[in-house]
Write a structure and sequence with these properties.
10 helices, single chain, alpha/beta, Rossmann fold, 8-stranded mixed sheet, 2 domains, GMP Synthetase, Chain A, domain 3
């Protein structure tokens, strides 16, 4: 480990042992060994933290839980998850920890080649979700022109992007596709936009070649850059400037590890596993050896030829450990279905239904073809064949009428379970 990162880690551990009620009992084994001299000692003495632990802590100690290193009056920001599958989880920041996250988002902008002269459009509604605010305020801090797309329709957003000559677009990959499709339907020519950069996050699609291919067709003058982060840890990665679909973890701000999610042992170099993060700068409400649930594929060499020493993840975030569905012995992640659908082409939107039939898990896919597509039956047959070739499974596919499936501004929710 670099010496400055080791110093940050020891400061974090000391602060958490002294003042953080959540981590005090979890760090008993490390107290007598501080300051730690290596990452190996840290890994031996400190256990993993998982999401269920801090969810339980916030439920037992509402509204913020006990993962606080400072008195409550020291915190100036509160952000939370959507709460779509339960109570929203809240995370607090001090002015200092918030500023660190803005700097981390600055790495994302710099990795995408953004300049102070760029004009950035943020195509999402501004609620309590953290990612919007860190991106917006980081761009402001860098001196960029910033325009919020909150409370606008898709058509109004397109008009604002054109009229304000915005050069950078920030949104989910699904919504970037939606904007491009509506722009085409409205008769807007690509050259009437000044966009040269699209930064996407919130879904694995940003690092899927087929999704990027569709975005390139809709926005031929713009280059796509992926990024990922989480409410509880903040901005995590930026896209490699030399290799599309490869993310670098911002290791100035994190200690990153990769483990086998079943055995909980560290993986060998280049082996796929679950990403573990320790927040070095977000010390006010830290996460230490946190199981993110994100599946990643580190480079076997451990170092990217772009020159960066930050951990490189091939294919970005491959999927979520808890999103995998086993169908007749085949492990399927949503990103695999997304890749096949986008490669097939001709599909505006789709939905996947997961259901049990006689105790066996089955998938059904409903697609909404492009409005002007003539051979819908041919598209259904082509997609069915693509599923069989790629997954060795017969997955029923049916088409539905135009504009019948929901559109998504935030993270797409295409999978339903019955």
């Amino acid at each position: 480990m670099q010496q400055d990162r080791l110093a940050k880690l020891n400061r974090l551990l000391e602060l958490s042992i002294d003042d953080n009620a959540f981590y005090q009992p979890r760090l008993k084994a490390v107290r007598e060994s501080l300051p730690l001299g290596s990452l190996e000692i840290f890994q031996r003495l400190v256990s993993f933290t998982d999401k269920d632990e801090w969810i339980e802590d916030q439920n037992l100690n509402p509204p913020y839980g006990t993962n606080l290193a400072f008195p409550l009056e020291a915190y100036s920001r509160c952000h939370q998850t959507s709460g779509t599958t339960g109570n929203p989880m809240r995370w607090l920041d001090t002015p200092t920890t918030w500023d660190h996250m803005l700097d981390a988002w600055g790495r994302v902008f710099r990795g995408a080649g953004a300049q102070t002269t760029d004009r950035v459009f943020f195509a999402f509604s501004f609620g309590p979700f953290l990612g919007f605010w860190t991106a917006f305020e980081s761009a402001q801090k860098l001196g960029m022109f910033c325009l919020s797309g909150g409370a606008m329709t898709t058509e109004t957003r397109l008009k604002a992007i054109r009229e304000n000559q915005c050069t950078v677009l920030c949104c989910t990959p699904t919504y970037a596709l939606r904007l491009g499709q509506v722009a085409r339907d409205c008769g807007y020519l690509p050259d009437t936009f000044k966009l040269h950069t699209i930064i996407v996050a919130g879904e694995p699609g940003g690092s899927l070649p087929a999704v990027r291919g569709q975005l390139k067709q809709l926005w031929p003058n713009a280059k796509v850059y992926d990024h990922h982060g989480m409410t509880e840890v903040g901005p995590v990665s930026y896209e490699c400037p030399e290799h599309a679909c490869r993310l670098h973890v911002i290791e100035d701000a994190f200690i990153a590890e990769v483990i086998d999610p079943d055995s909980l042992k560290l993986t060998d170099p280049g082996e796929k596993g679950e990403l573990i993060l320790t927040t070095l700068d977000r010390v006010g409400s830290p996460l230490i050896r946190y199981r993110t649930g994100d599946l990643v594929q580190p480079l076997p060499s451990g170092k990217c030829d772009c020159g960066s020493s930050d951990l490189a993840l091939e294919g970005g975030i491959i999927g979520r450990c808890d999103d995998m569905v086993v169908v007749r012995g085949v492990n399927i992640y949503p990103s695999a279905i997304d890749q096949i659908v986008r490669e097939c082409g001709g599909v505006v939107e789709y939905r996947v239904e997961v259901k049990k039939v006689r105790n066996l898990v089955e998938l059904n896919v409903t697609i909404e073809p492009e409005a002007d597509l003539e051979d819908v039956d041919g598209l259904v047959a082509r997609l069915s064949r693509a599923f069989q070739l790629s997954l060795a499974l017969r997955i029923p596919v049916k088409a539905t009428r135009s504009e019948s499936l929901p559109r998504f501004e935030m993270k797409a929710k295409r999978w339903t379970r019955t």
